[in-house]
Give the backbone structure.
Amino acid sequence: MERDNNSFSGGRRYRNNEITVYWLPDACVHASYCYRELIEVFDPGRRPWVDMNGATTDRIIEVVNMCPTEALTWKWNDEEKNKNISPDQTNHVIFRRPELLIEKENVIEKNPVSIKIMMDGPIVIKGDFTFQYSGNTKEMKDGIISICRCGASNHMPFCDGMHRKIGFEDK
Amino acid sequence: MGTDGNNKSFTLVEVIDGGPLKITGHLILKDPKKDITASPAEVYLCRCGHSCNKPYCDKSHNC
């Protein structure tokens, strides 16, 4: 199981080694240029529906530029090449969604899960993670759990404050 | 230059029955008392209270 970092708020992104194509489903008016022109790349019946290896970069750019909305936009992966874009490249992000031009890789990269060892107390874990215990698996989203570290909890594996009663000391 | 951007940032927190807490993946570990700040890819943390190397497991739970 892996996290899908090709998702971002409001859409998805697809890349080959030259360009990134952005897909914003809420903006789509189903004009259907994309799959009528290039089903090898844009196939609504497939998952993922965009295959960046299905055609040449030039052809993908040509078809993305046909999209009458901002549902499909594109940019060069080489930021230098995004600086002088001809206006006939209608769906380059600079003309449709300029904020995507300055998107940093780490904008959609999740923060690391925080593991904090409380002084003479439990392990407090915060963030997005998968939690497994006693045969259970839970997907935690912006979650927080507190795991017993003194060995005396009556609610294992969770902390119930017993460390104070037994005078647990972290030497 | 990446080809598909599949940077994994998936973190698994696993309670090992009768053993430590195993954490793997994208994490930052902080222990103010021991002055630890680290981002190991894998870490085993003591849950029994008997480790001589807290917060890490040293297998004292087997004793």
About this structure: Chain A has two domains: 7-107, 114-166. Chain A touches chain B through 46 residues (CB under 8 Å). The helical segments of chain A are 33-37, 57-64, 93-96, 162-166. The longest strand of chain A covers residues 136-147.
